[in-house]
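Known limitations

Files may contain more than one protein. Parsers should not assume a single record per file. Below, a two-record file is shown to illustrate correct handling: read the sequence, read the token line, then continue until end of file.
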Amino acid sequence: MPNHLYLIAVPSDKDGLRETVAYAHRRYTGYINARLRATGHSRACDNRKQRGGRWAAKNGLKMSKK
């Protein structure tokens, strides 16, 4: 699938993977915002959450708000 990224990583400490993914997400969001001259978080995240919520509702799953 050309629109997917698979990450194989071994963290050096218990927060290493979380910090690395968070850093990559911030950089990607900054790149997209600069390209679109926008501010805030990535619109891709909003769209993914909406699609996930629709999928969950369609398949009888309850979403929790955290």
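...continuing to the second record:
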Amino acid sequence: MHNDTQNQAVIELDDPIKRGDSFITSLTVRKPKAGALRGISLIELANLNVSALQIVLPRITEPTLTAHDIANMDPADLLAVGAEVAGFFGEQSRSPFGIPGEVEDAMADIAGVFHWTPAAMDGFTIDELMAWRERARQRSGAE
């Protein structure tokens, strides 16, 4: 596995995924933006919960993985891919206010102060989302 940039990683699979007559031997995993994390518990994703990974990986992998692909992955490969995803949530993602349970919670906090719609925040990286959430917390006076 190696990082091409801070926004994506290429992971060589120990056990290639068979799809039709071909095999997927490596995956490119992109750092998810806020829109790709909708409906996902950030805590479960950071804890490498398989159900959370099955939802988010099809949104951020190239080639695009299916739920069937993920369900049939070698556990070591799934752990490697999941660890890469969790690694995208570095220390800069954490605010003193804490990581919300779901991305929608952060979006709601921001919307309540800045009156932005969730769609306006879909393109935010998790770092940007957390930074704006912290600004919203400061402006609202919440502790």
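Parsers that stop after the first record will miss the second one. For reference, the second record is described as follows. The two ends are 40 Å apart (CA to CA).
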